[in-house]
Amino acid sequence: MPIKNSIQHIGFLGQALVKALFMDRIRIYMVDDHNLFIKGLQALLSDEKSFHFIGSSTTGDHFLEQYERIAADIILMDINMPEVSGIMLTKMVMDKDPDARILALSMHNSYRHIEKMLTSGALGYSLKSDDLTELVKAIRTVARGKKYISQSIQDTIVDRLGTSDEFEEHDDISKSKLTRRETEILRLILKEHSNTQIAKKLFISHRTVETHRKNIFSKANANSAISLLRYAIKEGLVEV
What we know:
Elements: H1 3-23, E1 26-31, H2 35-44, E2 51-57, H3 60-66, E3 74-77, H4 86-96, E4 102-106, H5 111-120, E5 124-127, H6 132-143, E6 148-149, H7 151-161, H8 180-190, H9 195-202, H10 206-219, H11 225-234
Parallel strand pairs: 1-2, 1-3, 3-4, 4-5, 5-6
Helix pairs in contact: 8-10, 8-11, 9-10
C-alpha cells in the first residue's frame, strides 16, 4: 500500500477510534457564571468515564451564540446568570429545541426557583451542595430524557405542599438566601410568634422550627430580632 494511502488509512482509523470512544459517553455542556465552579466540577467528575464535557459558557449571551453548535446530551444550567437568568435561558432553549435536556444545577432550594425552572422546561433540578453520587445519578437520568429531582429538592417540595398558608415572596431570585419555608418562619418570628406557636401554625415539629430558626439567624448573620428585621427589610422579605 502506498505511503500516502497508508497515512490516510491510519487517519480514518484514528477518527473511527475517537468516534467509538465518545459514542457512548454523555456529552455535557455547562452554563454557570463561575468559571472556577465549572473547572472544579469537571475535575470532580473526571473519574466518570461515561461523561464527556464538551464546553461551557459563563454568560447567557455566549451560551445563546454557541447553542446552534452545541451537540450536548445534557445542559447543566445555573439560575443566577448575568444579563439573562438561567430560567429565561431555559425557556429560550426549549422554544428552539423542545427535545433539549436541561438539568438545573443551583444553590437555590426554594420552591419558587424549583417551580420556575421546571415549568420553563428543565427536566431536573439538583443543588450544588448535593453529594457527587446524587449529581451523577441526576446527570445520567436527565441525559436519558427522564425527569429527576434530587432528594433535597423533594424535601423542599413536600415541605411546600404541606403548607396551607400562602405568602408573597420577593421576585428577585438573586437577593434572598432563605428558602420559602425559612422566609415564612422569619415573618412569624418578626410577628413575635414563639417556636410552639409556629410549630402549631405550620403543622411541623418544635425541633424542626428550632432548626429553621438557627438556619435563619445564621444565613442572616443576625444575633437579635432587630438585626433580623434589618436583614428582612434589606432583602425585601417584609414591607416597611
